[in-house]
Amino acid sequence: MGLFNWGQSQEDKQEYEALKSELATLENRLDTFLAKLNERVDVLLSGFIEEAPAVMAEDDRFGQAYYRFSSAMKGQTANMREKLREVLEKQIEPVYSRYSDTLSVGSEAYNMLREWRNRCADKANEWEEQLHHRVEETTELVERKDYEPVFEEMMNNYWQQCQSVNCRQCGANLSIKQVYYYSAYVACSHCQTQNIFEPGTIARDIEHTARKLAEQRSKHFMDAHEQRNREERDLYQQMHELQLTLSMDERMSKRGAKYEQLLSLEAKRVQAENEAPELLDKYYRNIFDELNKLLPDLEEHHEKFFLSLQANYKRYDGKRSTNL
Amino acid sequence: MGQNPLFEPIHGISLYDYSAANAKIANGVAVDAICSALGVETPVWEEASQGWVQRMQEDSEFIVISEMGTLFGQADQHPKLGQLQPVAGAGNAQNLDRLANDRYFYEELNGARTAAYEAGLDGARWIQDNYGISLGDFQQVAMQWMEEQKDLSSEEITEYVDYMEAKRQEYAKKFAEENGGNIADDVEF
Amino acid sequence: MQEENKKLSFIERMKQRAVSQQTYGGQAENTEAGTGEATCPNCGAGRAKQDGLTHCAYCGHPFITTTLTDGKYIKKSDNSNT
């Protein structure tokens, strides 16, 4: 018997136990490593949440310091990801390849080795997924803002600033009556002189903020859209699992309780599948309806922009074929 | 191209004018200088700019934006804007020349720029400070390399991607050290 | 506790780096609404609405050498009749 044929001999059993314990030790070390990384993630994210408001408060209108701060936070998570990948590559995979070359396929030891490798990979993937999720959550929490008062305040400030804008020639108030998104020639109603009106940074940011506000007001459609997508995936999964339990007879005759249940799941799934794109459409339509309300003078452009966006998201409207 | 209303000049400002002007602005040329070279006043330039942005948003086929990318890379050949330089000077001509001719140098700076952003640095600023290459010039050269990429084999492309990644890691290490290390440097397996 | 302080200082360092840096192209400044100079740079005359935007009605100096089309605020009719 060769060393790793894993027969019934005493020697083989000992070697099996030795491998088992080697693998268990490595897996424990991986668990500890992930737990230690998690502690650092905690420190990183809680620190980010704590300091972000101060960074934002002192920032310029493009939010560039916050952008750097948040890039750095994400850079640190990328660095931890790389560390984990390196551990898999240098500590887990070499052990797997070393033994898998010598163990006979299908033996108990070989199966144990394969399962161990899969578990380690799953743990790493799960950790990464969780990290991704936590970063998204943290970012959303930090960046969450109610655009209603922000937009209102911008408009108020703009109108207030306009009250003191006078004609360069005769000094009369220029009586600005609309939002100018960029500089424009404005004629004085008293002396007819053309002035070059500079609307200021607030006005230049209004379109962008209106967009954010319109998205905020439409978010419930996006949430519902994502919810339907999740439902569709869940139902599809349920159907798949149910299909695996069908007997040959049920499968061929397309009859029986399970088959009925399958059809009912399919009906719900199709409904969710049909509603999801409709809700996405409602989301975008609503954004542009809101934008038309907020900035009515841009309606013509909004409508063309909407059609162009719509043409693009409709391109990805794929449907599943379930073939029941 | 002439037939498509999406390409009609706005107040006499063509897509080439608009694209080249943006390349120049990204290089630090003042908007006033752009306006004089184009023979317009600021409100005309701004309205044309806004108009081009809207055209891009309204164009579901992305033909305007893709054409803009090509024209952006030809800013220096623009008859009215080509010669404009920022007041601060033209930057480091030697480094710029190297960037345009040495693919490895270009990939190194690409990797460094990514690493800089991941370290919380302003990558564009870092390249400007260390190599005297402005954002506009960098993007123009990037466009050239992208055009040339079409003729490369997949092995060559992989070679450059790997090189950039190696450089990114090298710079990431350097930027981290400059700021006292990464948060999990001492976490060991 | 000491370990904790060391980590807190990492966040501090990360924040310092983000806020103390010069941004490419400089910090974006805020401006208020106002008016800019619009008299003729050649003869100093004011510009009246009925004279159009492209040329000075007094000395013929060209303010704008392109031909204006129909835009949001500026219209074809704003070309001066020269």
SSE layout and pairings?
The complex is a heterotrimer of chains A (324), B (189) and C (82).
Chain A: H1 10-57, H2 64-100, H3 108-143, H4 147-162, E1 184-187, E2 194-198, H5 200-244, H6 248-253, H7 257-294, H8 299-314
Antiparallel strand pairs in A: 1-2
Helix pairs in contact in A: 1-2, 1-3, 2-3, 4-5, 5-7, 7-8
Chain B: H1 15-26, H2 31-38, H3 42-58, H4 63-72, H5 93-101, H6 103-118, H7 123-131, H8 135-149, H9 154-178
Chain C: H1 2-20, E1 34-36
Give the key terms.
heterotrimer, A: 324 residues, mainly alpha, two-stranded antiparallel sheet, 2 strands, B: 189 residues, globular, DUF6620 (chain B), coiled coil (chain A)
Number of domains of chain B: 2
Q: Which structural class matches the secondary elements of chain A?
A: mainly alpha
Number of helices of chain A: 8
* Main sheet summary of chain B: none
How much beta of chain A, percentage-wise?
A: under 5%
Low-pLDDT residue intervals, each spanning 5 or more residues of chain B = none
Descriptive account of the structure:
The complex is a heterotrimer of chains A (324), B (189) and C (82). Chain A has 324 residues and is mainly alpha-helical. Chain A has eight helices and two strands; from the N terminus they run ααααββαααα. The mean pLDDT of chain A is 93. Chain B has 189 residues and is mainly alpha-helical. In chain B, helix 1 crosses helix 4 (63-72). Helices cover 23% and strands 4% of the residues of chain C. Chain C has a domain at 40-82. Chain C is mostly helical. Classes of the chains: A mainly alpha (324), B mainly alpha (189), C mainly alpha (82). Chains A and C meet through helix 1, helix 2, helix 4, strand 1 and strand 2 of A and helix 1 and strand 1 of C. Strand 2 of chain A pairs antiparallel with strand 1 of chain C, so a sheet runs across the interface.
Concise overview:
The complex is a heterotrimer of chains A (324), B (189) and C (82). In chain B, 64% of the residues lie in helices and 0% in strands. By secondary structure, chain B is mostly helical.
